[in-house]
Design brief:
Chain lengths: ~350, ~650
């Protein structure tokens, strides 16, 4: 696809802003890594060679202990299997991922479930950032919590923009009574307090729903109450573009409304949208973290940064590593996204590239 | 029976708003409320309309053969070393929504301070001498100077202390007890539980003179004396304005009390703090069993919503004591090695108590698919690793609950034991139910492709870690528990609507003589028309909601035993029936007994005094029974020491005199 030369110029400018560009690379790298998270952070082995046969348990079905000559029918504990094979000195071997704990298992520390300090602070081996109040690995929970949060935020952004841009463009393009009515509707709608709605809706949705369904509902509810802010920008931008000659020309040629809005006007207003994107992501991550913190977000035991932050504030004095890792991770990610946002805004700044006005 | 924690928060957030509306309405109507009302005539007419219940006699009508008793020979409660005076500082998580004792919102966490722990009943069950005597429990005198029990006539006679007074100075008379029945049965109070309880459980009240009355019960039960003596009167003069607007009119009015503490109007700072003040020249201040209790002059509550925050306030000395029962607090947040403890400024006490235990455990709804299969339920029982929770979460301090009615002394089954965690036995049971193969996620699947997966609901945010532990362990036995942590009120609502699969919850039980079975195990509380006349299950039965039979248990043979038990007058017969029913319930396996927390762990500043043996056997929490006191001299000394760095010998004690062997 041939890019608009203007867009190419903008992208080149973006690449030249080092801080933003590096942040972009790091974040993209993290997202790609998180897609293969199960290969990096997992209690399941990457590969097991048992009696001459190779097994790859990571993505497949749960392999019972009996498959490896262990006396139990529940899922194999690969860390112990590795130790067992090593002790036996047999030809069997286990290849574990770099981080050997998943986000759900409770590992006791000093024989009870309580937070264990990070391994570099004298805590048990393998727990890079220590464990939380029930002995779950903080690194694993942060890692998968990041994956959930970032994809949630991306989906949130996509949905709010689809709705917000469509409605905003329509308001700007049609104008008149339509604009007036929709504006009033939006004013009313945006005055409904979002947080209370989430709390109310979550108290009535049936609990029999699966976790993905509940996450989906949370997403829909958040989108329902967040699309409105986008409409104002798109409305004014469309108003402006509608008055331009190219729009009149398109109308004269006989292009349909949809074609005019999405093929002609939208590309010319997109710079406004693009500059907002990273900040929408920041607010989505913040919102889902805040909701988790309040206990209305992602259902337990989904790994989440908000839930870790909450635990951390309750154990400030006894387990400061919980709050510090969660806080540091959150700040790190939000800073990355913000840097990207700044660079995008600068690169796409319409003042720099607008050819007429 | 109430649910333990949610009952404290019975009214949800939206009710707070509603209470706010009431409050505003109350303000708006202030001028109107001056309109005097006098319901004396209405009350008299009610008595006249119910001549069988409200009877009027003369002192001459008193039977001559009564054996009067007053419990004077029972050991004294509290410590003679107690010092009067000072202010006791503590906190509330939520501001009381009303000062009424009854009606909507009244059953909140502040009610013990308004009523339960402060009121003086006619007589009280002795909290340390708790065995069952020939006449039932042992009682010491409260508002009654003496009482007499006649089982043949199903009646208890009471003589009122001549000097007993309400906190506003008005004497307490028999008329206040008559009025109490009118009050509790009145539609005005908008409290169906009271309406029902005081209509069905009592057969009549007879007034002999201003200080003598008797109450008759519909049937002779082993705990007859308790049923009458634990009643208390209502101030007829104060409720003269009782009417349709009861809720608004009495929302923030302090009810006169026979007890030691009342609230002065200037001490109500809504949303922030509330203070109890000791009644001046309290009528019972020199009475045995009352004189060494209710010691501080004032008890001040500030609102601190957040537990970690209130703990910090305690460590600063702004709050006098803190409940350290959770292992996290006892071992990690205030360990024995903490400077505050080692310098003797803060004392740590662990006290084992003994009373009917809140029924923590998994309540399985037998009306749900798969859970209607007994083998599945038995399998789940074997698949729940309570011992791991006890060992690793509670650090070995809790005990395993054995039956649904632990802690009733002679009425608790002596040998029955709950099922231990065993993957083999769980798999065996699941196999009997047709679940033999494991799916790709390790969860068992039956021939029809149904997964062995259940929703596990709780309203206890603080105990959600227990569930994550149970979940991980249950997965090993091939059963998936999907955890749902709800807000307390919502969880309780879901439970009462029987919408749950499995619920981790507890019903709190007051220290009664014997366990109740009708509420949580009789079919009448599970279904309408549970059985056909021949005793088999009725396929068209209808689920009944809003009852405590949250397992939807309906067993015909058990019903018969419950009825016999509830009609029995002999303690021995009841024990036999109780054991048989307990065994049937064990077989039925719908309740997986969880944990018993057999102790309270209290951290308190050095200036808080308490008896040598710390507490009474039935003491549920530190403040119940009001045995503590504030030592002003020590407070000054301690605060000085904190400034100068002086230290005292550390105090870390355990009291095991009432500890039960498990």
């Amino acid at each position: 696809m041939a890019l608009n030369p203007l867009t190419v110029k903008k992208l080149r400018r973006f690449r030249s802003i080092r801080r933003g560009y590096v942040s972009f690379l790091v974040l993209t790298g993290l997202i790609v890594l998180s897609l293969f998270g199960e290969l990096l952070v997992n209690s399941r082995a990457l590969a097991v060679s048992y009696e001459g046969r190779l097994h790859f348990p990571t993505y497949g079905a749960n392999l019972p202990g009996t498959a490896f000559g262990l006396g139990y029918s529940y899922e194999t504990n690969y860390r112990e299997l590795k130790k067992k094979f090593a002790a036996e000195g047999s030809k069997n071997w286990v290849l574990m991922p770099p981080f050997q704990f998943n986000a759900f298992e409770n590992t006791p520390y000093q024989n009870v479930f309580k937070p264990a300090p990070p391994s570099f602070m004298g805590g048990p081996e393998g727990h890079l950032l220590g464990t939380d109040t029930t002995g779950r690995d903080i690194f694993a929970r942060l890692f998968f919590g990041f994956r959930v949060a970032i994809f949630f935020a991306l989906a949130f952004m996509a949905l709010t923009y689809v709705v917000g841009i469509s409605v905003g463009c329509m308001m700007g393009y049609f104008g008149g009574v339509f604009d007036l009515i929709v504006q009033r509707l939006i004013e009313v709608w945006s005055n409904i307090p979002f947080l209370y709605m989430v709390i109310i809706i979550f108290s009535v949705i049936p609990s029999t729903l699966s976790i993905p369904a509940r996450v989906g509902i949370l997403l829909v509810v958040m989108v329902l109450f967040s699309w409105t802010s986008m409409t104002y920008y798109m409305r004014t931008a469309t108003y402006r573009e509608k008055a331009r000659d190219y729009t009149s020309a398109a109308i004269v040629i006989g292009a349909g409304t949809g074609r005019i809005i999405f093929n002609h006007i939208l590309p010319n207003t997109i710079s406004t949208v693009v500059t907002f994107m990273p900040f929408t992501i920041v607010s989505a991550i913040t919102a889902v973290t805040a909701l988790d913190f309040l206990g209305f977000g992602l259902p337990a035991p989904t790994p989440s940064m908000g839930e870790l932050l909450k635990q951390g504030t309750q154990t400030l004095t006894t387990a400061p590593w919980i709050v510090s890792s969660a806080f540091a991770a959150l700040v790190f990610i939000l800073t990355l996204v913000t840097f990207i946002g700044e660079a995008v805004r600068e690169a796409f700044d319409p003042k720099k590239f607008t050819t007429y006005e | 029976m109430n649910q333990v924690l949610p009952s404290l928060r019975l009214s949800g957030r939206w009710l707070l708003a509603l209470a706010g509306v009431f409050f505003l309405v109350g303000c708006g109507k202030k001028k109107e409320a001056v309109v005097e009302r006098d319901n004396t005539a209405e009350v008299k007419a009610y008595y006249a309309a119910n001549p069988n219940f409200f009877r009027f006699a003369t002192p001459a009508d008193l039977p001559k053969d009564l054996e009067w008793e007053n419990g004077a020979d029972l050991p004294e409660i509290g410590s003679p070393a107690a010092k009067k005076g000072g202010t006791f500082y503590t906190f509330l998580q939520d501001y009381p929504r009303t000062l009424r004792h009854v009606g909507p919102d009244a059953n909140g966490s502040f009610r013990p301070w308004l009523l339960d722990d402060v009121v003086v009943q006619w007589a009280w069950r002795h909290p340390t001498k708790t065995d069952v005597g020939p006449k039932g429990f042992h009682f010491f005198s409260g508002l009654a100077s003496e009482w007499a029990i006649d089982k043949a006539r199903k009646t208890v006679w009471v003589r009122i202390e001549p000097n007993a007074r309400w906190s506003d100075g008005v004497p307490i008379t028999s008329d206040d007890m008559l009025f109490a029945f009118y009050f509790w049965r009145s539609k005005y109070i908008q409290d169906p539980w009271y309406n029902n309880f005081y209509t069905t459980n009592f057969a009549g009240i007879t007034r002999y003179d201003s200080h003598t009355f008797s109450i008759t019960l519909p049937e002779d039960r082993p705990d007859m004396s308790e049923r009458v003596l634990k009643l208390y009167p209502q101030p007829a003069h104060f409720f003269k304005e009782l009417g349709d607007d009861f809720l608004e009119r009495y929302q923030w009015r302090v009810v006169p009390t026979p007890g030691a503490y009342t609230i002065l109007p200037e001490d109500i700072d809504k949303g922030r703090s509330i203070t109890l003040t000791r009644v001046k020249d309290w009528w019972a201040k020199d009475k045995k069993n009352w004189r060494y209790r209710f010691n501080p002059d004032k008890i001040r509550f500030s609102v601190i919503r957040d537990t970690p925050k209130s703990f910090e306030a305690f460590k600063k000395g702004e709050i006098d004591f803190f409940n350290l029962s959770l292992a996290e607090y006892w071992y990690d947040k205030l360990p024995d090695s903490d400077p505050l403890v080692q310098s003797g400024l803060v004392q740590k006490n662990k006290f084992y108590h003994d009373f009917p235990r809140p029924t923590f455990g998994l309540w399985m709804n037998t009306n749900r698919p798969l859970l209607d299969n007994r083998e599945v339920r038995v399998g789940i029982q074997y698949a729940t690793n309570w011992q791991l929770v006890i060992d690793k979460f509670a650090r070995g301090d809790w005990q395993r609950m054995q039956t649904g009615s632990d802690g009733y002394g002679e009425f608790t089954h002596p040998t029955l034991r709950s099922r231990p965690f065993s993957i083999e036995k769980a798999l065996e049971s699941f196999a009997k139910a047709g679940f033999t193969t494991r799916g790709p996620d390790g969860v068992l699947v039956n021939a029809k492709g149904e997964r062995l997966s259940f929703q596990l609901t709780t309203g206890y945010e603080a105990l959600k870690d227990v569930l994550t532990i149970l979940r991980e362990e249950a997965l090993k036995a091939g059963v998936e528990l999907r955890i749902e942590v709800l807000d307390g009120t919502t969880a309780f609502k879901k439970l009462r609507e029987k919408q749950h699969d499995i619920s981790y919850t507890a019903f709190s039980v007051s220290p009664e003589m014997y366990p109740r079975y009708w509420e949580d195990s009789h079919s009448a509380n599970a279904y309408d028309d549970a059985f056909r006349p021949d005793g088999t299950m009725n396929p068209e039965r209808k689920l009944k909601t809003q009852t405590n039979n949250v397992t939807s248990t309906a067993i015909h043979a058990l019903d018969q035993k419950i009825i016999a038990y509830d009609r029995s007058s002999g303690a021995d017969e009841m024990k036999k029936l109780a054991f048989e029913m307990e065994e049937m319930l064990h077989e039925h396996a719908a309740f997986s007994p969880g944990q018993v927390v057999p102790f309270m762990r209290i951290g308190s500043w050095r200036w808080i005094g308490y008896p040598e043996d710390f507490h009474v056997k039935l003491g549920k929490n530190f403040t119940e029974w009001m045995l503590f006191w504030v030592d002003e001299e020590k407070k000054k000394e301690t605060l000085d020491a904190r400034r100068t760095g002086a230290t005292f010998p550390p105090v870390i004690r355990t009291y095991e005199q009432y500890k039960q062997k498990n």
